[in-house]
Structures are given as C-alpha cells and as structure tokens.
Amino acid sequence: MTAGRGGRLARLREERFDIVVIGGGITGAATARDAARRGYRTALVEARDFGEGTSSRSSRLVHGGLRYLEQLELDLVFEASQERRTLLHLAPHMVRPLEFLFPLYEDGRVGKLKLDAGMWLYDALALFRNIERHQMLDAAGVVEREPQLRRQGLLGGARYFDAQVDDARLVLATVLGAAESGAVVANRVQAVGVEQRDGAIRGVRVAGAAGRASAADPASGDPGAQAPGTETADGWTIPARLVINATGPWTDITRSLAGIEGHPLLRPTRGTHIHVRRARLDHRHALIFESAVDRRIMFVLPWGSDLTIIGTTDVDFDGDPATVRPTAEDVAYLLESANRLFPEAKLRPADVVGAWAGLRPLVAEGNAADEDAVSRDFVIRETPPGLLTIAGGKLTSHRNMAEKLVDRAANLLEERFDAPPARECDTARVALPGGDFEDLDVLRQELAAVAAPYHLPPSSVDRLAAAYGTRARQVLKLLAGRPTLREPLAEDLPYLAAEAVYASREEMVVHLEDILFRRTHLALETDEGLEEAFRLTARLAGEELGWDAGRRAREVESALAERARFDAWRGAGS
How many domains would you assign to the chain? Predict the structure, then answer.
C-alpha cells in the first residue's frame, strides 16, 4: 500500500517536485493522480484531512445535472453525463446506479411537456448510454411507485437514472490511487506561504500539525538549485516547478499567499443536508422535486439500509470556510420541503439524526444574482506565473477537470522546463483502487462466503463491497486472526471494528475524527451511543497508532466536540 506517514513527510522534506498540489479534496486528489500517472514528480498536501471540506459534505451523487438544463448549460450536462459513465466503470463498487422519480404538480414551474423534452435532451446528451432511458409516468404510475407522496395536484412525473457515491471514500480512493501512482501525499500539512523567484512561484512553504511556518521566511533560489526541505522555524519549503491551487472554498485564501488580492474568484454557497430515518418518509426511490416552499430543485435520497438524505440548500456564504455548519433555518427549510412532499411524515427537528453543510466553490465571474442559477462550470487561471488555480466545477466532473488542468500544467512544464509528460493521460481507463473487478454481484457473493464464518449481517457485507471493492478482502483477513473485530463500531450501523484497524493501518488516518466522519460516516449516522462508539474506535485506532490513554481521551473529546459543532443548530431556535 502506501508508505507510512513518517516516510511520506520525509520525502516531502527531501525531494524536489515538478508539481505540488495544494488541496486534498476531490479535485486536488484527481489532479495529483493524473500528474503522477503521466510521470511527473508530484506532491499533494492537505491542511486538514483528505476530503474534509466540500468533498465529504455533498449530496453524494454522481449525476448528469438534470437541473442545469434550465440554464441551458448543455456542455456541462454533456460532460457530466460522460463522466458519470466513466466513474461507473472506474469505481463500480462505489459509484452505483440509482433510480429517480421526478413528480410533477399543478403548482410547480415545470410542466409535463417541459420535463419530457428535458428528459429526452438528458438522454441525448448522455448519447443514449445512460443506465436506462427515462420513462414518463401518469399520476397513477407515480403513486404506485411512491404511495406516500402528496397526491393533491399531482400531474405525473418521470423515472430516470443517475448514480450515488460515498463522496469521502471516493476522495480517499483517488488519493490512494495518486500515492500508488508515485505521488507523495500527506494530510495535516498546511501550505502557509509560497516561494517566488523573478516573479514566478517556485515552491510552497508548509507546516505540519505541530506548527505554522513563518510568513516572513525569505524566498530564494530556483527549485533546481535550492536544497529541498529548507527549514523555517516551524516548517519547511517544498520546491516545485509548478504549484497548483485546488483548495475549493479556500481558493481565494490560498491565492492571497501569492499576494493576489482584490476581486475574489469565488462566490461560495452553503449546501446543507440532513439524515432522517427512512421509515419516517417511507419512500422507495430517490426523488428529485421542486420544493413547495420556493420551487428550488431538491433531493430525497436513500442512504445505507435505513437512512434518508434530504437536501440541499443554496445560500451565499462569506465567512471562514472552516466554520460552515448547518443552521436552524437550513434545517427548518429542508424539513418543511420534505413535509410538503410527504404530508404524512410530519418531520420535526427531533427526527434529524445528523446534519452537515459544505460550501460549493462557485466561480464568481459573470454569475447570476440567484444562487440557484450560478454556473457549476470551472475555470483555470495562472496568476502569478507558476501558480495554477482551478475553481468551480462539481464532484461528478472532477476527473475531467483534473485532466484539463494537468494538460495545462504539462504544456507549461514543456515550454518552460523542457519537461514533457512521460505518458498520456489514462485516468479514464485505469480503475481506482478496489475497482478492479467485473461484476459487483459476484464480488459481493465472494465476500459473503468469506464472511460467513463470522456471521456478519448482510448490511456489513454490502458496506464492505461498496466501500472497499476488491480491497474488502484485506479487511476481512483481519478477522481471521482477531474474530472480535467482527463486532460493530456502533449498534445498528454496518461499520465493523475491523474497519477502524484497517483505516489506521492503510488509509492515512491521523485523528479519530478521520475515521468517524470520513473513512466511515458513523459520526453523522446515529444520535445514540456516540460516546461509546467513539471510545471503542479510539481504542482500536490507538492500538495501531500508538496512542496512550491520554491521547485517546483527547481524540474522543475532540470528535465529540466536532459532532457538537454539526449539531449547534439544535440550540439556535429550531
């Protein structure tokens, strides 16, 4: 697998790089993987954990962007439709087809003719190669499929397919793919400055979790001549021919490290989601619908065996990206929208199992006043020379975004340093870690057979297949020598104790919350027995990572505090 953390940090201190990517969300991870696979000496640094920002706080969809047809962003829909098909091939365990219903009502702004035309266009932009073609339904057909929907004013609807993904694990798989392709990757390493020479960026100053590098550290030297790992008081310099800023909502903050001020590149918006028990809505499909509150397009999505995701909001945000959390107003809006669609549900704040919010790093240039109409396309800028910034885009299109970005980087490296890529881009063909199999049902059956002696519940076997693909075999191997690892981390959730051990060994865990919020989603999928589950996970991780009792206690306290921050809306008048 990947080298240990100490070895990765040592390489960051000792080596010179062609490309250093700042930002370990999905775009930065995909960029590092692409650059490394083309033969460039590549490093990836992330200030927090991989995917901790926007990339683990999405709607968890890989979709063509049906709602973008209203803005006539046909190129964006076409690109997303092709990338959806590519991801279904690259990570067939993780990116899985999902059947949707779109109910139509008399009081909505979308009529049957408009929806039917949009659906045909959606299929056409996918080159009629979507999972299945759409089907228009009358009111009776919609009710047959979803009996709990509001019937008053129901005109009919449409059935179509998109795909669902575990966003945090998609980021992790891409990071692992980058590392296994030769990139040096590290989380909890923060970029705190840049090195400049003759007006061009020539490296990044970074600090580890223990300290921050001095912003006054002088810039000097060419990456070909400067000693790698130049130490500052609290950090060091990573020399690079090109630096890539892929920091999502932190894009403008990162640009400021290079002295770029003035008009911001981003217009971030806050998207909030909530979990409720699926039985409260009793729905059978994923639904895309117009909120009866304000006619915005929203989702109701199945998650796991018994949870539902309701989302999302789209509210302008101008604060510190690290502070974004669900608000009481966001949650109230989501509950009201769901209640109007499912009149018998009568959801209340007490029904919310967990909530999360992330920031969409939308491009500010030329955007509309209406948040919902802001483009999801992306831009690439080089300012100043040697610093490439990518902004905007969406989860579904991350691989294509990275390909375009590395194409640009490769042209610059060839022009300025006579350093063409050793290989062509192959990221559309090479499976992500765990995705090297032909048939998910066959893989699931194989895993069920291996798991049979341990009497694992079907939900845990399905979880292992979906999260790890073929690498689930390595997780199950842990049970052979330690059968107690078959126990769940939390009651009524599919996560096994073995996963905490595996994550600590193989998935670059630094803190307990990395396991609880991103290697799994345990921390937001239950509101009962949290402290007990956190302590069990800390004990298992601590045994692997050398945490003493004091460190374990601090990790539990920190993880509980993070969950409390996600729950702060509960005390804000909701």
Answer: 3
